[in-house]
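Please check these two lines:
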Amino acid sequence: MRALAVRWKPFPGLLGTDDLENALRTNPATSRRLVDDGDADAAIALAAQSMHRTYVWP
């Protein structure tokens, strides 16, 4: 039986969770549209109060 030759990269350690939002936002990601149904711009224009949001997940 032969041994598998393995080279490990240095581990930089885990990021802290003190600034979780920033940690999630700076993590490499791909934007994806979850739902594209209806006329969102018209609905926002007719709303008494609009709240623009961006949701991120790991």
